[in-house]
Design brief:
Layout: H1 4-10, E1 18-19, E2 26-27, E3 33-35, E4 38-41, E5 48-51, E6 56-58, H2 68-81
Antiparallel strand pairs: 1-2, 3-6, 4-5
The structure holds zinc ion (2 copies).
Length: 82
C-alpha cells in the first residue's frame, strides 16, 4: 500500500506504514498521527471524557478535534521538513 497523502499532495509514492482508522487511507510516517480515542462518560453533574486504551492512527483529515494540538504540532513538523 502507498501513502495516500503523499500521492495526492506530493505526487510521490511512499510505502505506507500505517492506516487511518477512520477513512482507511494508507499513511507514511510523515502523514500518520499516532494518537488515541476517547469516549464520553455520562455521569450526573460532571460530563467528562475517558481516554480509551491503545493507540489509534489517523490521517490529517480524520484527527479528532480533541487532538487538535497533536495535529498542529505535527503539521508544523511536516511543513518545516519540506
Ligand atoms: Zn505520506
Ligand atoms: Zn483518515
Amino acid at each position: 500500500m502507498q501513502c495516500f497523502d503523499c500521492a495526492v499532495q506530493l505526487n510521490r509514492e511512499t510505502a505506507a506504514n500505517a492506516m487511518c482508522r477512520v477513512c482507511g487511507a494508507g499513511l507514511c510516517l510523515d502523514h500518520a498521527y499516532p494518537a488515541y480515542a476517547q469516549e464520553e462518560v455520562h455521569s450526573l453533574g460532571s460530563p467528562a471524557t475517558r481516554r480509551l486504551p491503545g493507540r489509534r492512527m489517523y490521517c490529517r483529515e480524520c484527527v479528532p478535534s480533541y487532538l487538535g494540538d497533536v495535529a498542529t504540532a505535527q503539521r508544523g513538523r511536516i511543513s518545516a521538513a519540506v
